[in-house]
Amino acid sequence: MQIYLDYSATTPPRPEVIDLMQQVMLTQWGNPSSLHHWGTRSATLLEQARWQVGRLINAPAEAMVFTAGGTESDNLAILGVAKRFAQPAHVIISAIEHAAVSEPAKMLEAAGWEITRLPVDRSGRINPLDLQAALQPNTALVSIIWGQSEIGTIQPIAELARITHEQGALFHTDAVQMAGRGVIDVQAMPIDLLSLSSHKLYGPQGVGALYVRPGLEIAPVIGGGGQEDKLRSGTQAIANIAGFGLAAKLALAEMPIEIARLTAIRDRLFEQLADTAFASTGNRTHRLPHHASFCLPNNSSISGKHLVRQMNLAGIGISAGAACSSGKITPSPILQAIGHSEPVAQTGIRLTLGKATTMADIDWAAMALRQILERSLPTVAMV
User: Fold this and answer.
1) Long-range contact list for 299-304, CB < 8 A, 24+ apart?
2) Chosen domain end from 250, 282, 299
3) Cβ-contact 169, 191 below 8 angstroms
4) Where is the Aminotransferase class V domain (predicted)?
């Protein structure tokens, strides 16, 4: 039996998406910047996808800028705002941002910008009062992840954006994990910039989008032919973008039913492991519907990497919270940010669910995890 439980890492492209992309590559492969028939057919497809992706977050089509993925979208948002300033200013992020936000923030810091990293509580939530206290007259941008990919916590984005706007700063959110798994309405919230990624929505890898509030000017970070309203030069990947558009359309249509289904399966997993040495991480109430994560606070001799390998031998794909490089395990900065020690921060695992996940899959995965614990810690696996 093969069970994939790593949908936060990537989702398999839907058959409908694959079929459409194949059709586009065979018959609508023109350069959308060309004025002839081949180009205008591709340009029409491009704008249709722009409208479909915009609808997912209730944004006008013209506000959507296609990129190569969530990482580029985050970089364009942060560096694109920063490049509008003649002198270094101030940026606020959270202590649990994805590297696609935290790394460009470090780049700005090296260039003389002041970076404030907001703390979070034990469940990974930001206190809005901390944001209010951190804002300064020269704050250019606040960037807060909406749904955290490692621990699943959802932030109070509407309130954080409102506080930011009251102080005159811009607000960006990385909504890569949230899109398709929760209602996003950029016209009902004071959100200036929002990042999306296709391959988290059963679309192709290699394409994403950045919502830029109409009227807001940011600077490009790539020079070239001026595509995407001069914000993202380079010939658009039409087949990928078309696939992204269809995936967004289908995600929006299925979202209410799928959220309820995934939440029920997720909660069953928490129940199945409640009497083990695993402790859940993240916020149980304000949580991505498809996301379950755990660590071993009292048994830090077992790493997340070990658990991933053992589950893989059982035919089950999960993810480790700790980053692994060249065989070396480094503590998860996210788990450390929510108060865990370095040894415990190496034990984190994440199981994320998707369209193909069933209750039976979760029962099997929970049984496998329990057995791995019993083999590894025969005297303390059960509490």
Assistant:
1) 299/347, 299/377, 299/380, 299/381, 300/341, 300/343, 300/344, 300/346, 300/347, 301/377, 302/347, 302/373, 302/376, 302/377, 303/329, 303/346, 303/347, 304/329, 304/332, 304/346, 304/347, 304/348, 304/349
2) 250
3) no
4) 3-363
- Res. 383 pLDDT band, cuts 50 70 90: very low
Q: What is the spatial distance between Cα 359 and Cα 382, in angstroms, rounded to a whole number? A: 23
With respect to residue 272, please indicate whether it lies within any of the assigned structural domains. Answer: yes
Q: Which amino acid is at 327?
A: G
Please identify which of the residues 9, 259, 279, 324 carries the catalytic annotation. Answer: 324
Residue the block writes with tokens 């304000």: 286
Residue 380: pLDDT band with limits 50, 70, 90: very low
- Mean pLDDT score across all residues of the chain: 94
Closest CA to 195 of 181, 178, 217, 170: 178
Report how far Cα 308 is from the mean position of its chain's Cα atoms. Answer: 21
- Is 295 annotated in the active site? no
Structural domain includes residue 383? no
Q: Are 322 and 303 in contact (CB under 8 A)?
A: yes
Q: Which H/E stretch holds residue 31?
A: none
263 lies in the same domain as 207: no
